[in-house]
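Because discrete structure vocabularies remain unfamiliar, we reproduce here a specimen of the format, pairing a chain with its fold in token form:
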Amino acid sequence: MGITSFQRLVTGLVLSTLLVGCSSTPSGNVRVVDRNNATPQRPTVTTGQYVVRRGDTLFSIAFRYGWDYKALAARNNIPAPYTIHPGQTIRFDGRSGSTPTAVVTQSGSTPSSSSKTTVIRRPTGAEAATVPSVASKPTPVPMPPA
């Protein structure tokens, strides 16, 4: 049996479609999105402490307060593999004796014996007014196709 005219027609259409699809030119209106600064940068907390809760990781605590997890581990003498335990205190200032004001938050609406409490010490006075400046990155410019 040979190839029928219908099979030749279908084969020709498939090959033509493939060739046309491969030869199309891309659109000139390419939108470039800078995702390097997609999330707003949080100012680094440089004073106070955090009490580790069940489920916390050093990475999540460091991310939440604007730290690199390795720098926070070094500040608190936590060796690799950076294991922390509930109830452990993570210090952001590296000092043991300071008297800033305390902010206490509780999870849940009613206190109970198993209520989780987080203590974050915030600076008072002139220390509270200082916020580190963040340098902005230049906006990327799309390059014409080569």
Observations:
- The chain is about 25% helix and 10% strand.
- Confidence is low (pLDDT under 50) at residues 96-113.
- The longest helix spans residues 5-22.
- The helical segments are 5-22, 58-64, 69-75, 126-129.
